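Risk register update: the risk of archive-format incompatibility is retired. Evidence:
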Amino acid sequence: MTSSTYRVDVGSQQVELPLVALSSELALALLITVDMGVEFMRRAGEELAGLLAPYDVDIVATVATMGIPVAVEVTRALGLDQYVILHKTPKIHLADAVSEPVRSITTDAPQRLLFDRARVGDVAGRRVALVDDVISTGASTGAALRLLRSIGADVVAIGTLVTEASLWEVALGEDAQRVHALGSIPVFRPAPDGSFVEDWHG
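Archived output:
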């Protein structure tokens, strides 16, 4: 592989993702949902909802920010109206939020997931589908699962546009079997000739 993009199937759609180096030893193919366009997200949400529909979902949850377009379209396709967001940025309505520490592969510093206490009743005792744009190391997904379960949510399925490499399978343990994805991508290791080599383990 010598190009600076990576072609991947996301359900029935094929896209070229830019490769971005995180360090001298690691590069990622970036799927930026807010840049993908309305029609791409509509179809992806519809197809992901098709994978989640058998789980009789009551409400969809996601992690801000890139997961929000996924949650909107999956919620719409499932015929639901409400979804909930686990935030990473403190906001005025989150001063007394339920929180859970998290560290993301694309963020340098440790963060906290924040969930508005006013929305706890929307997920407690209900069948929740957790959706996101990409599951990579499993750190964000694991933190989201811990937070949702701590407030009484019954997380019945996990949906993502793509999984990245395979570290997430170990990190999520038994929850890995709940994951449904429209595609999969590797991480990349720079080669001496300037090209990138696929690494499906991570």
